[in-house]
Amino acid sequence: MGLTSKDNTEAERRCYPAEPFELVYSIRPCDSSRYSEERRTLVVDRVYVGREDTDTVSAAEIRFPEGDEATSRFHGVVFITSDGEVRYQDLGSENGSFVGDERVQSCALRPGVVLRLGRAAGRSTLKVLAVSPPPEDTGSLWGDARFHGLRGRSLPLRRAFAESSRLARLDTCPRAFVVRGPPGSGKKAFLWELFRAWGMPLHRVPYVDGRWVLGARADEFRRLLLEQRQVVIIGHIEGLPVDEQRVLADLLRERKQGHPSLVLLVEEPTLPPCEPQLIERNLMKTLRTMPYLSLPGVAQCGPTEIEEFAHHFLEKYKKESPPGGRFCVQNCEFSTRCLAAVCEAVWHGGWRQLRAAVEFAAFSVALDGRETIEETDLRAGFSESSLPLELLFEMPLAEAEEVFRRAYLMWKVRKWAGNMKWVADEVDFTRRGLLKAAKMSGIHDGEQVVLPAIERWQVSEPRYLREERRLRVSVPSSVMWLRECVRQGLDTEIARATLLELLDAHTAAKIERHVEWQIQRGRCDPVKLKKTLG
């Protein structure tokens, strides 16, 4: 796992869709004897072929007249394989798809191929005229699409940024929409930013994971969704039992006033045509008619964008890292060889894996007191937390649980730079319970975190060790408070000294209450804290 060697890079990329293309075609409706004029459609990931339907929000891109009842609304899909071959696949239509007199489930689309939608000779027909690379003027399609300083250069990413910007400008969440993409494409990250734009508190948005919904409880599942007031996020819908999939399909078709907004996170397979495999066919049909935000994976973006994302993740980690003297990641930068390795590697886990590798590498470099992230740091950064599932499945259950628990806690501890209070909040543990689990897993010795291949957690500024330990134990919210002081442009040294001075004069519980109150108000000020406590 992690970075892939250059020798295997091209072979590994074969499992992902190839570059976008332009399909040039003409159609002949069932009630006509002539083909239409030449038409062009840009295919970024896939386009649907079907009958025009004015009742749906999203319709097929290659459309036949609405009166053609023999053609389904979503009759088939056109996509491009990893080998660069353009193909058509029938989506289980009742009347089928034919090339000549032969019914086909899937076929290659080359210039001159005539595809008939239906068995009879007079059915609607699609004639392929040419398959060519995208035109040079595609840069104007979605304008200068950006997302938090990131600029979309490839067509899939530019389209995703433009669509997310359009959704963010809405007053509230749509009644129902889909966020789709391969694993690790950042579906939740985009969704959280949209919720912030709509003014929705993230901690109050319920999330339902389809993999953990028990079967034979369809009524409870429906009641669970309807009792929410604003919005419900449903992830991994392919894991829902069949009865729950039917309930979800019914709710999506109804969309009654007073029902909560339904946001579906769809994990799409990397193999074309990249549609989720659902047991309930009606739910699959409903998903095709819903508005969606399609996010590309790393393999669909160019080296320039991968490098830009790596810099973005590093800068974001610098801002999120707890302030103080325990270590310093604010000066970490990539070396030239490291950036080249980032762009050449195949990231199986998508943007999520790239972000984890960057954060872990920066953390390791800071522990060693260095400032430059090398290629070896990036490789080791992610491989330590990568567990081959095949090995876990071969272990006894108790041993596999122990290995996973250790790797999971290691991941969280590295992510939050050793701040056990933040880790406890994220994993939904009490701080005491988290410390107990960390001790049992061997990554905490009762006083501080102990990482693999590191005898002790190295401290870049040793003079702060005793003071930080005192603050961390006595006032658990002190790290969050110091972080807010930095965000407000205050001097961290003065803020730290103020806390230590107050600890000599007041009880820790009293200071903790006032510190938490300032954090909740969003106004952390050491002068006011000292004045309030007297």
Number of domains: 4
Distance between the termini: 56 Å
Strand order in space, largest sheet: 2-1-11-10-7-8
In DSSP terms (H or I, runs of 4 or more residues), the helix count works out at: 19
The appropriate CATH architecture of the largest domain is Orthogonal Bundle
Q: What's the number of extended β-strand segments? A: 20
The helix content is 40-55%
Average pLDDT taken over every residue: 76
Rg, rounded, reads: 27 Å
List the helices and strands and how they pair.
Blueprint: H1 6-13, E1 21-28, E2 39-43, E3 46-51, E4 62-64, E5 76-80, E6 86-90, E7 97-99, E8 102-104, E9 106-108, E10 114-116, E11 125-132, E12 146-147, E13 150-151, H2 155-168, E14 176-181, H3 187-197, E15 207-209, H4 218-226, E16 231-235, H5 242-254, E17 261-267, H6 281-289, E18 292-294, H7 303-320, E19 333-334, H8 336-344, H9 350-367, E20 372-373, H10 375-383, H11 389-394, H12 397-415, H13 420-427, H14 431-441, H15 465-474, H16 478-487, H17 492-505, H18 508-521, H19 526-533
Parallel strand pairs: 3-4, 14-17, 14-18, 15-16, 16-17, 19-20
Antiparallel strand pairs: 1-2, 1-11, 3-5, 5-6, 6-9, 7-8, 7-10, 10-11, 12-13
